[in-house]
Specification:
The chain is mainly beta and 385 residues long. The protein is 1% helix and 44% strand. The strands form five sheets. Strands 4, 5, 6, 7, 8, 9, 10, 11 and 12 form a nine-stranded mixed β-sheet that branches. Strands 3, 13, 14, 15, 16 and 17 form a six-stranded mixed β-sheet that branches. The chain is globular. InterPro entries: Glyco_hydro_68 (IPR003469), Glyco_hydro_beta-prop_sf (IPR023296).
Length: 385
């Protein structure tokens, strides 16, 4: 039975709570961990381009769309290399990547200069229609184009393009129909520029991830948000935007579906995978954005499971943690994305170093080795564990 609450005269499903008690079940000494990343795993796409958050150009069911024999297209945030890797966030563009014969190729910025409405482009998702040509990109516009001072305002946009092959190289042409998907509802979601802008304190209204329900064809976007009217700084939530059931390209913003108030500030890149008749909601988060009462929780992939897209959402493994980075390299990878075949992609962050290690940050800025999950009801493990 769904929990309900009364809000402004309307009855709606209450968000699932990710609580301090859930996180207390995590034992850092015994939690599942990803394999240690070594030097042989760090294969850059380009010497002068750093990439991080990535997602496939997907079919409607979430599977990476095949555009040729063994060939897929991906998108990732990219920026020039900086001495301080955190500087990349102020220069992020969405790049189009080709994966063919086990190799990655950077095809340049996905959208033309001056098209996106922000000063930077942050994470999203991309869907290729059945015609194999029409592409829809859902993305985060950070800041405003032409702003004099970099801001952390985040807005959710959609745009269409045409996928073409020119001289054996994929390209996106005829960008059009740029539109803001929804406007933030201040009853439920805090303004995204309400934080200080310091790493770990930024508020969220970002990362739209597309999902089509195999049970009834409903389309939804899941995104990272911040709870309105929270009294503390740790107020991360996961929101949902529903498409009209008649197929019209109209979207309606829903109240949060997961609330991590007093637990965590950022539930990043939330996304859903349908498996075994259940729905698995995953997100990434980092140790430094947990509240003090949850400071033992590691950087890792977290999630919940439900019998339907409408909930009730229950923390996986009793705590929400699916797996963490290893203790010897607690920041080695981040931004995990689970695909329908339960493979898991991420990027290499500060690899090969422990928390106390001195010296320059070793930012990998490329794809991490692919991992694989096993899902069984409310249990989620790394395959082979």
């Amino acid at each position: 039975m769904l929990r309900v609450e009364e809000t402004s005269g309307r009855v709606r499903a209450a968000p699932a709570r990710w609580t301090v008690g859930d996180v207390a079940r995590i034992d850092p000494a015994r939690c599942p961990v990803a394999p240690l990343i070594g030097a042989d795993d760090v294969a850059r796409i380009s010497d002068d381009l750093d990439i991080w958050d990535a997602w496939p150009v997907q079919d409607d069911d979430g599977t990476p769309a095949a555009i040729g024999a063994g060939e897929t297209l991906w998108m990732a945030l990219g920026a020039p290399r900086f001495d301080d890797p955190d500087a990349r966030h102020g220069h992020a563009r969405i790049h189009l990547l080709r994966h063919r014969d086990g190799r990655w190729q950077d095809l340049g910025p996905a959208m033309p200069d001056g098209f996106a409405p922000g000063s930077r482009e942050w994470s999203g998702s991309a869907v290729l229609e059945a015609d194999g040509t029409t592409l829809t990109l859902y993305f985060t516009a950070a800041g405003r184009r032409g702003e004099a001072e970099t801001s952390f305002e985040q807005r959710l946009f959609r745009a269409h393009a045409r996928l073409v092959i020119e001289d054996d190289t994929p390209a996106l042409r005829d960008w059009r129909d740029l539109a803001e998907i929804v406007v933030r509802d201040p009853r439920y979601y805090m303004a995204s520029d309400a934080g200080t802008g310091a790493i770990g304190t930024i508020k969220a209204f970002r990362d739209p991830a597309y999902f089509r329900d195999p049970a009834d064809g409903r389309r939804a976007l899941f995104f990272a948000g911040s709870r309105a009217e929270a009294t503390g700084e740790f107020n991360g939530v996961i929101g949902r935007i529903d498409a009209d059931r008649d197929g019209a390209p109209h979207w309606q913003l829903q109240p949060p579906i997961v609330d991590a108030t007093d637990v965590n500030n950022e539930l990043e890149r939330p996304h859903v995978v349908a498996h075994g008749g259940r729905y698995y909601l995953f997100w990434s988060t980092q140790r430094h954005v947990f509240a003090p009462a949850c400071a033992h929780a590691p950087t890792g992939l977290y999630g919940m499971v439900a019998e339907s897209l409408d909930g009730d959402w229950t923390p996986l493994n009793g705590s929400g943690l699916v797996f963490a980075n290893p203790a010897d390299a607690p920041r080695q990878a981040y931004s995990w994305l689970v695909l329908p075949d339960l493979s898991v992609i991420s990027f290499i962050d500060d690899w090969g170093r422990g928390t106390a290690d001195a010296g320059a940050r070793r930012f990998g800025a490329t794809f991490a080795p692919v991992l694989h999950l096993t899902l069984d009801g409310e249990r989620a493990t790394l395959a082979g564990d």
